[in-house]
Specification:
It is a single chain. The chain is of the alpha+beta class. The protein has a single domain, classed as OB fold (Dihydrolipoamide Acetyltransferase, E2P) (Beta Barrel), CATH 2.40.50. The chain is 28% helix and 23% strand. It contains four helices and eight strands, in the order αββββαβββαβα.
């Protein structure tokens, strides 16, 4: 291992470890004060894939698409691993949902940041390497954090990164 590669690996590890205790004050743009105000609270009834779930909110099941991240699709490499990691985080859990700017996407799915207790699910998927950071404007509240964590996960070879699935050279969709 070259010294440059070793330093890159150490920097990636440091970034990942520093993010371990991140919590976000969503109402104030993602500062680290530790309080999160949820727009909705519900129970996960089904995990669709790595970045989409069904959630029962006030007796109605809604499909929720995670904001700011993207995971492999059903016909792509690492799909099952990303879906399984998401399932471990949220399946059957009571979750808090936080809106950025956009309420729904073109498929009528709620666009949300997802929390299980103090765990920021969108962030955990990126940090573990099972999701890539993607900017879906205008929803950009945690954009730079996601980009930084994706770079660290890629440098450390975590999750799906060794497959090359996220190597399209773009952070926007």
């Amino acid at each position: 291992m070259t010294i440059q590669r070793l330093w890159g690996w150490l920097a990636a590890c440091a970034l990942i470890l520093s993010a371990c205790n991140l919590s976000f004050d969503v109402a104030n743009g993602g500062g680290s004060s530790g309080s999160v105000r949820f727009d909705e609270v519900g129970r996960v009834t089904r995990v669709i894939d790595g970045d989409t779930i069904d959630v029962e909110i006030n007796g109605v099941v809604q499909r929720v698409r995670y904001v700011g991240v993207n995971t492999p699709e059903r016909d792509e490499v690492c799909y099952q691993q990303a879906a399984d990691f998401n399932r471990q985080l949220v399946s059957g859990q009571t979750i808090g949902l936080v809106r950025d700017r956009t309420n729904t996407d073109r498929f009528d799915r709620l666009l949300r940041y997802v929390y299980v207790g103090e765990t920021f699910v969108n962030l955990e998927l990126v940090r573990a390497g099972f999701a890539e950071a993607v900017l879906y404007e205008p929803d950009d509240r945690h954009w730079q954090t996601f980009v930084d964590l994706e770079r660290a996960a890629a440098a450390a070879g975590l999750g799906c990164h060794p497959t090359g699935i996220f190597n399209d050279g773009s952070f926007t969709r």
